[in-house]
């Protein structure tokens, strides 16, 4: 599985989620543009730059043992711009907002949670660092920026994709899709944050007040899953 942030010649910004699935049956579409190929034939095809990159990563990953598989993120030379108006224009036209949540591991192995605003009738709430993808950003840039903005920590390395979470009401404010990633981080906190050992967070997870679906994301992470939900 991979998440690719691309911008075409028309300057349209898109984030593509590519997944491998098992399928069966016959191709019933009367269209010569739909064909099936064996995996070994794929390198010989003439494809677009984006499709060639995605297939190349897929073939590289599929040849590795699952526990050693690598996860690639699309990269981009686009300079970071914040077109907030354009982002919310997309919301108006009923497209989900794209975001990233970050499971940050410190050098000692502890996991970072940040304090979130609470309503008067709620108890103290915590959550994973993260936020929306700005217009023109790719996922790694968003992860790096949001980690710095929300914790003060520096990104060392993106380790793996934990999952892609798209349930319509996971965020009560707006329909959003979150790409959850595990990262290595270091530095000094600039906000109110807490760190937990894996064992401590596992034992307290069901009783903590966590925002959105961050409990689900952490549960999937602890189980070593890569989830599409």
Explained architecture:
This protein is α+β, with helices and mostly antiparallel strands. The protein has a domain at 96-228: Nucleoside Triphosphate Pyrophosphohydrolase (Alpha-Beta Complex). Helices cover 23% and strands 28% of the residues. The protein has a five-stranded mixed β-sheet with strand order 6-3-8-7-10, with helices on both faces. The chain has a three-stranded antiparallel β-sheet with strand order 5-4-9. It starts with a strand and ends with a strand.
Blueprint of the fold:
Elements: E1 2-7, E2 13-18, H1 49-62, H2 84-92, E3 97-105, E4 111-116, E5 125-127, E6 130-132, H3 139-151, E7 153-165, E8 176-187, E9 193-196, H4 198-204, H5 214-222, E10 227-228
Parallel strand pairs: 3-8, 7-10
Antiparallel strand pairs: 1-2, 3-6, 4-5, 4-9, 7-8
Features:
3-stranded antiparallel sheet, single chain, Nucleoside Triphosphate Pyrophosphohydrolase, 229 residues
CATH class label of the domain at 96-228: Alpha Beta
CATH topology of the domain at 96-228: Nucleoside Triphosphate Pyrophosphohydrolase
| % residues in beta strands | 25-35%
Mean of pLDDT: 78
Structural class, from helix and strand content? alpha+beta
Number of helices: 5
- For the record, the CATH architecture of the domain at 96-228 stands as Alpha-Beta Complex
Q: Could you give me the name of the CATH homologous superfamily of the domain at 96-228?
A: Nucleoside Triphosphate Pyrophosphohydrolase
- Please write the string of helix (H) and strand (E) elements: EEHHEEEEHEEEHHE
Going across the biggest sheet, name each strand in turn.
6-3-8-7-10
Q: What is the tally of beta strands? A: 10
Helix content, binned percent: 10-25%
- Alpha carbon gap, first and last residue: 13 Å
The major β-sheet equals: 5 strands, mixed
Low-confidence stretches: 66-83
Shape: elongated
Our Rg estimate from Cα atoms comes to 19 Å
